[in-house]
């Protein structure tokens, strides 16, 4: 029986990359059915709701969501819908694998790290207070509960995926109480996994080391804001945002999305790279136990990237999104 999932099409390049990914999933014979919704800024302008009630209800029924990027106004307007979804469904573990691909030339060929970003607290709670005309305070929240579960997940992942080392990234030298708590919990939990090497690094040093010597990083666990920044940095190391997928996992719900945003600068130009959303869909298939189908799609993407003749402009090619999609579908058909 096919698994029903919810799909949010999002803003900017969202609809075009979603259509493309759904066609590839179809060609690979994914055991999925879809409930598809328009959400985000465009939907709000059309119908006055950023996420329609029926879209929320669908996710609550299906518990698995493939989500495209959503535009968030900067400095004003509504709260990020991404943050809203992560909090509403307690999607506390944001897992972002960044791996070099032989086909994509970057200064480093040996990047293979997985970032575990805490997804529900830190500065992202969005609690800001205007003290006077010239002063604003923002709250950074770190709790034992949220820190414990993300750190434990990072070690469990390392144990179950043959990873050797977990690095905690923080700023506990300055934020002695908040990041200090995160680091203390990390040190405690690390003792339960003696077979896995562990260390910690300050965020600024981590940024420098990531661009000098990225292959020293294996699994990284870190609070929300540093995880956000580090994963964009990691995407730069492997060829750009078009190649970085993610899963957002909670106890009851799972959401899969590209790390990148709605890319309004290239929306509608047919040049968006759908790989990050496609690999997010592969993570979803693996989560649902459809590993063979995910493997087939991953192999097809690898072959198209390695062939190098049909790449989107972000990877220095001239192919449209649709030409790239068709090249992947051809590879999948050869395997069927
Ligand atoms: P962005 O990630 O949308 O784009 C950054 C740069 O990367 C742009 O030049 C863009 O063209 C390029 N890029 C991104 N994805 C690409 C792809 N798949 N193929 C080719 N090029 C790609 O970041 P931004 O411009 O800072 O943000 C745009 C909007 O997206 C903002 O409103 C932001 O809040 C939102 N956003 C949403 C999410 C999400 O929904 N998860 C994540 C990040 C940003």
UniProtKB/TrEMBL annotation:
GO MF entry, a single one: NAD binding
Q: Gene3D superfamilies, from UniProt? A: Isopropylmalate Dehydrogenase
Required cofactor(s): Mg(2+)
Its pathway, per UniProt, is: Amino-acid biosynthesis; L-lysine biosynthesis via AAA pathway; L-alpha-aminoadipate from 2-oxoglutarate: step 4/5
Q: Which PROSITE patterns match?
A: IDH_IMDH (PS00470)
Has keyword Magnesium?
A: yes
Q: What is its EC number?
A: 1.1.1.286
* Keywords, alphabetical: Magnesium, Metal-binding, NAD, Oxidoreductase
According to UniProt, the reaction catalysed is: (2R,3S)-homoisocitrate + NAD(+) = 2-oxoadipate + CO2 + NADH; D-threo-isocitrate + NAD(+) = 2-oxoglutarate + CO2 + NADH
User: Keyword Lipoprotein, does the record have it?
Assistant: no
Q: Where in this chain does the record put each Isopropylmalate dehydrogenase-like domain?
A: 4-328
GO biological process: what's one of them?
carboxylic acid biosynthetic process
Q: Enumerate the InterPro entries for this protein.
A: IsoCit/isopropylmalate_DH_CS, IsoPropMal-DH-like_dom
Q: Which Pfam families match?
A: Iso_dh
Q: Which family does it belong to?
A: Belongs to the isocitrate and isopropylmalate dehydrogenases family.
In UniProt terms, what function does this protein have?
Catalyzes the NAD(+)-dependent oxidative decarboxylation of homoisocitrate to 2-oxoadipate (alpha-ketoadipate), a reaction involved in lysine biosynthesis through the alpha-aminoadipate pathway. In addition, has high activity with isocitrate, but is inactive with 3-isopropylmalate.
How this chain assembles, per its entry, is: Homotetramer. Dimer of dimers. The homotetramer can transiently dissociate into homodimers.
Instruction: Please state what the protein is called.
Output: Isocitrate/homoisocitrate dehydrogenase
Organism of this sequence: Brotaphodocola catenula
């Amino acid at each position: 029986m096919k698994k029903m999932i919810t799909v949010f099409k999002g803003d900017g390049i969202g609809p075009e990359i979603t259509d493309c990914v759904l066609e590839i999933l179809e060609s690979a014979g994914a055991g999925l059915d879809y409930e598809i919704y328009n959400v985000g800024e465009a939907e709000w302008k059309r119908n006055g709701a950023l996420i329609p009630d029926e879209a929320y209800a669908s996710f609550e029924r299906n518990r698995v969501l493939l989500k495209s990027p959503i535009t968030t106004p900067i400095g004003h307007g509504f709260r990020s819908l991404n943050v809203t979804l992560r909090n509403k469904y307690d999607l506390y573990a944001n897992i972002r694998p960044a791996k070099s691909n032989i086909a994509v030339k970057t200064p480093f060929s040996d990047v293979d790290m997985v970032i575990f970003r805490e997804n529900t607290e830190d500065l992202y709670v969005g609690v800001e207070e205007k003290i006077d005309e010239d002063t604003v305070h923002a709250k950074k929240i770190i709790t034992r509960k949220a820190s414990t579960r993300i750190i434990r997940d990072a070690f469990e992942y390392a144990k179950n995926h043959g990873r050797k080392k977990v690095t905690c990234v923080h700023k506990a030298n300055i934020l002695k109480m908040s990041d200090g708590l995160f680091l203390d919990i990390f040190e405690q939990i690390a003792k339960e996994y003696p077979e896995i090497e562990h260390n910690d690094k300050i965020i600024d040093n981590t940024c420098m080391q990531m661009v000098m010597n990225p292959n020293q990083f294996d699994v990284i666990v870190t609070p929300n804001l540093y995880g956000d920044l580090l994963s964009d940095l990691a995407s730069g190391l492997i060829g750009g945002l078009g190649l970085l997928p993610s899963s957002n996992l909670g106890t009851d719900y799972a959401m899969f999305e590209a790390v990148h945003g709605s890319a309004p600068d290239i929306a509608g130009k047919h040049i968006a790279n759908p790989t990050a959303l496609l690999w997010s869909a592969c993570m979803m298939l693996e989560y649902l136990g459809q590993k063979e189908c995910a493997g087939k799609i991953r192999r097809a993407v690898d072959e198209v990237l390695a062939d190098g003749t049909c790449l989107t402009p972000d990877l220095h090619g001239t192919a449209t999104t649709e030409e790239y999609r068709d090249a992947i579908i051809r590879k999948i058909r050869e395997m069927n």
